[in-house]
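ENTRY TYPE: paired fold submission
RECORD: A
CONTENT: sequence, then C-alpha cells
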Amino acid sequence: MTESQLLRLGTRGSPLALIQAEEVRDRLSTANPALTVEIVVIKTTGDRVQDRPLSEIGGKGLFTKEIDLALERGEIDAAAHSMKDVPTWLPEGQCLAAILPREDPRDALFANSAGSLGELPHGAVVGTTSLRRQAIVKLARPDLTVVSIRGNVETRLRKLAEGQVQATLLAVAGLKRLGQAGLLRCILEPEEMLPAVGQGAIGVTARADDEPTLANLAKISDESSFARVAAERACLDVLDGSCHTPIAGLAELSGDGASLRLRALVAWPDGRQAYHAEDSGPVEAPEALGRAVGQALRDQAGPAFFEALAGS
C-alpha cells in the first residue's frame, strides 16, 4: 500500500466477483475512511475457458492463479476471492488476511417440475460441473443423469428453462449477493447436500510482509467465519484431494460460540459410495479439528481411493 492510502484490490470480472469485491471495498472504506480502494479486474483462465469442466483443465486454482501472480508482482495489494475457489496451498509469500462475515453456505435446487431431489422424475437430467454435487446427487438418486453445464446464474437457468436439463444446482450465497434471493424455491439442507469447503465465504489474500495492508484487512475480518473456513480448509489440506475428488465440508458454531462442529465427506464421482466424518472442537483451534476430521476420512476411504482418483 502506498503513502497516499491507496489499496489496489484484485478480482475476477464476473458480476458476482465484482459484487464481492465491492463489499470488501465498502467494508475497508468504512473501517478506514482515509483509505481509497481501487478495484482491479483480472481475467483468469477459469473465466476464459467455459466449454469444459474445471476438473479437465486444472481445477479450481484456475480462478486464482493470474490474480496470485499480480499480487506477487506488486500490481495489486490484495485480492478478493470466493473461498471455495481458493486452493489450500497459497503461493509463497502470500496469506489469507481476512474472511468477511459468511453468507448462507447451502445449495439450492432449481427444477422445472420438482420441489426436491426426491421428486425429480426417474432418469431426469441434472446439470452441474461440480463433482461434489454430481456425487451427492448420484448417491441419493442413482437413476438420475448428470451432465456438465458451466456459466453464470442466468446461463444455467436459461438452459433449465429451455429444457436442456430438468434440474440444476446453485449456491444460495451467490443468488443472495446478486439480489436474486426471490428465485430460491428449494434450499437443500446440509444433511442432503453438504456444501463445498468455503462456500458462501469471501476471503481476501495479501502479501505476508505487507504490514499496512494486513492491518487494514484485519479490521474487516470476521473471527467466527475465519475459524469456520480455517477448519474446513485444514480438512481439505489433509485429504489432499485432486481436482477429480468430490469433497464437501461444513463447520458450524455451537450455540454459545465456544466450539465448532465440522462435517465432511469424500465420495466417488459416480456416487457409488461416500465416506463421512464429523467431530467437534474448540473454536480457538479450528485447524486441529479440520485435520482430525480429514484424517478420519483418509482412514475410512483408504489409500486406494485417493490413488484411483488422482490417476483418473
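RECORD: B
CONTENT: sequence, then C-alpha cells
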Amino acid sequence: MAKIRPFRNRSQRALGALLIETPCPACGHQLAFPFYDGGRQPLTTLAWPRSAAEAQSMEALPLDFIRCVSCGHVFNQAFDYAKVPYSDKPNLMFNKGALWREHLEATAGELSRGLPARPTVVEIGCGDGHLLRTLAKANPNGRFVGFDPNGAIETGDGLVEAQYKLFEPAVHLLEYRPDLIMIRHVLEHLTQPLAFLQALSFAAAWHGLKPRLFVEVPCIDRVFATHRTADFFYEHNSHFTRASLATLLSRGGAAVDRIETPYDGEVLTALVQLGREHRDANAPMTASGADSVAIARDSIAFYNHTRHSDAVLRARIDDLAQTGSRVAVWGGTGKAAAFINRYGLDATRFPLVVDSDASKVGTFVPGAGQEILRPDALLRDPVEAILIATQWRARDIAREIEAAGIPYHRLLLEHEGRLIDYHRDAHPYRDDAARAQNADKTVIRLTTRPQA
C-alpha cells in the first residue's frame, strides 16, 4: 500500500513512487495514482452503535483511495470486504426528502412503462424494498422478488417475495427468469463489481435470457470540481464517475441503452440489456496515453488540494467551536459520519446531532459518539447554526428545515474547504426554486438569542 508525502509537481518525486499496480474494480486496468488519503475511520453506515463508549471504541479502518488512470474510477485499495458485516446489519442509507421521493417516483414510472403485462422483477440488494414495493403496487399481476441477506426487507403484506440471501447469477437467473433486474446502491460496496456484472451477463447469455438491468450508484463527478471529501467512507469501496460506470457496464458485457445523472447529478442511473450482442463504438474503454497522464495529474492535484483544504476546514471548525455558538450537525451516519470524523467534530464541542431517519434516533455517531436526536429537538431547544454534513442532500435538508419551521441564524455547509452560508454564498447545492419562492426570508430568524 503506497503512502506518499505532498508533492508540488510531477517531477518532484519519481514516477515509480507514485504509480500503483493494482487492478481497477471497474475496468480491470492495472495502473492507478494516489487520489485521497482519508486516514482511518470506523464504519459509518453499518455500525449502529448503541452507546457513546461503543461508538468511540469502534475499529478505525483505512481510507486509502486511488484512481485508475484508464477509466478514472476511484477506489479504496485498502478495502477488506470481511470488515463489513453486510449479512448482520442493514445499510443505513436513508433519504426521504421531497426531491428524493420525486426521483424514486420518476424511476418507478419509467421502469413500469417498460414492463410486460405479467412481469417478473428481481432486485439485488433491495434493502427495505421500497422501490420494489412501488413497482409491485403499479403492476399487480407481476412477481417481485427482493434479495438481501440482512433481513430488513418489508414485503408490503405479500407484494414482495423476500429472499434473505445473496443473489447468485448462475443459479437465480434461470430460477426466476426476470424481465427486469434492479441493482441500486450495491455496486459501490463490492470488491469486484466488474466480475459480478460479467457473471450476470454471461449467465443471461448462457440461459438464452435477455432481461433489462437497471443500475443506480452514487456519482462523484461533482467531487472533482468541489474537492469535497465526505463522499469517501469505508463501506463504499468504489466511487463511480459517468465514464467509469459506462466502462464497467460495457466491459461487463451489457448493451448500454442510456446513462443519466438525476437528483441534481448526485446519482448515476443506467438502463442496459443483458444477453444481447452489442458493438458500441462510443463506449469508453482504455484511455489513450495522453488521457491517462491527464487523469494522473488530476489525481495528484486533488490529493494535494484536499490535504491543504482539510487543514483549513479543521481550523474553521475550531473557530466555530470557540465562538461559543450552539451548533447542531444535521446527519449522523454515512457521509455525515465521515464528515464528523474527518474534521474533528467531537462530542464535547459539538454534542448536538440530529437526523431525519427515525431508525437512527437513539443510536450514536460512529467514532465520535454523539447520540443522534430527532430534528424536532431543534424546535424545543433552538440553536444559532445548523451545519449540513452531507452536501448531496443539502437541498432536501434545507427544504425539510423550512417546512418544519426550525429556527436558526445560519445554515452552514462545507464547500471547497470552507464553511459557507447555504443561502447567501455561491455553491452548486442551492435550491434556486425555494430561494425564489422565499426571497424575502432566506432564513427563519430567531426572535431571541439562544442561550450558549
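NOTES ON RECORD B: The two ends are 46 Å apart (CA to CA). The chain has a mean pLDDT of 87.
STATUS: closed
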